[in-house]
Amino acid sequence: MEKDDSELTLFGALDAFPGDPSRDVCPARAIRWDGENLVAFVVAGDCIGCGLCVSRCPYGAISLGDELTAKVETADPDGMVVAGPANGEHPQVNRGGQIATLDAPAAANLPAAVMALDDARTTLLVRNLLNEVGLNARTRRRGDTNMRIDAVGFSRSERPFVAEIEIGAGVLESPRALLEDVAVLHSRYGYAVDAIDPLSVILSFPNGRSEYYQVIRDIEKVLGLRCRTITVGALVALLWYCARLDGFDGDSFTVGEGTIDLADCLGLDEAKLAEPYPGAFRPAK
Ligand code: SF4
Fold this sequence. Notes:
InterPro entries: 4Fe4S_Fe-S-bd, 4Fe4S_Fe_S_CS, LdpA_Fe-S-bd
Radius of gyration: 19 Å
Largest sheet: 5 strands, mixed
CATH architecture of the domain at 110-272: 3-Layer(aba) Sandwich
Low-confidence stretches: none
Domain 4Fe-4S ferredoxin-type: 38-67
Protein name: 4Fe-4S binding protein
Structural class: alpha/beta
Strand order of the largest sheet: 5-6-7-8-9
Strand content: 5-15%
Number of strands: 9
Shape: globular
Distance between the termini: 39 Å
Keywords: Iron, Iron-sulfur, Metal-binding
Bound molecules: iron/sulfur cluster
CATH topology of the domain at 110-272: Restriction Endonuclease
């Protein structure tokens, strides 16, 4: 299960950004091929239960459901809508429905599973999640010391964004790093500063009293730049509900004192009811 060239292409000057060439859809490389029985299978011990493969499989053969990890079946196990193959050709991916509910064991297990991934796999997970929810994203080529922006891309409204991916303790540094990223995108690629959306992709929101929110507010007050925040849990929620993110218009994904709740931005009614894990939509109490 691999991405094709068109998915890894960025339009305009940003196509020169040195990107990770990996075509893997599965960030954990958990999908293998059984050459004897000619079927794909998932190595449960490697699978993090993200649901990316469920979303991509054109035959609806992979499911998550109430399981902790994905599994491959020969019939459509979850009744999701798939495009029918025409003239014996490989069908296009065209899914609707729901991969799993946000109270599934795989959702609760995400923080531990993501923390266990190495940096390269974590970055691949984020890139593929951004892609699947409708953002044309490219993550930095590993080992490229001339570039420190973690990811760049375009929303569906064709506004460029820069992203910092901070899964661990680096969250507090993320807004400051975004300032540098915006400067680089402006000076090297020619995009106007006020046309760039800076985005932090984090695992969980810091405590509500954290300096993180103050720095974001200061940056907006002094420089007029609105730093956005989205969590891996929020991206997974969008993926599991087969929803798409058009962009970062208005107040979307801008967090501040008293207004920290991503469930309000996702357009998913049910998302309010079940946070996939503490800190995914709002600071954990
Ligand atoms: S659920 Fe995610 S980690 Fe598991 S096999 Fe599918 S893509 Fe890989």
